[in-house]
Amino acid sequence: MGRKTYEDHSSEFPGRCNIVITRQESYPLAAGVHRAVSLQSALGLARETHAQVFVIGGAGCLRDALSMADTVYETVVHADILGDTFVDAFDFEGWRTLKLVDHPKDEAHIYGFSIYKYQRSM
Ligand SMILES: NC(=O)c1ccc[n+]([C@@H]2O[C@H](COP(=O)([O-])OP(=O)(O)OC[C@H]3O[C@@H](n4cnc5c(N)ncnc54)[C@H](OP(=O)(O)O)[C@@H]3O)[C@@H](O)[C@H]2O)c1
What we know:
This protein is an alpha+beta fold. The protein has helices at 3-9, 39-49, 59-66, and strands at 19-21, 34-36, 71-77, 96-103, 113-119.
């Protein structure tokens, strides 16, 4: 994840190896969280110990990772929200598309959402 995404969550994601991309050499990270200076070096570090690697944002990381990704998970939240960070719509033409979840709003979710899985055709 990019450094701003890490800051937004203010802690690591539990149960996973967390790698934060930042050019700042002495950026303070929680114990056990790794630092990488680029997406490429983060991917290299992750692949040393993990077969499956997720790039979770922000915008630049997602843009750069797409050309290398074999699978993309997209959650579409059924809400109109004024955002401050944007990613161009991806073109999944030729990818296999699966709708995994179609969840209405309920007591636990103030918005409905749909989750899609896109797999690159080999
Ligand atoms: N809806 C979602 O699924 C989702 C997912 C992720 C994030 N977000 C949101 O998106 C916002 C943050 O996104 P963002 O795009 O503004 O920031 P970001 O990618 O999270 O962080 C940007 C910072 O990460 C480092 N960085 C990113 N790419 C790099 C690269 N290729 N090489 C070296 N360093 C790199 C730099 O840190 P330094 O300046 O420290 O060098 C850069 O300033 C937050 O609001 C977050 O909550 C949403």
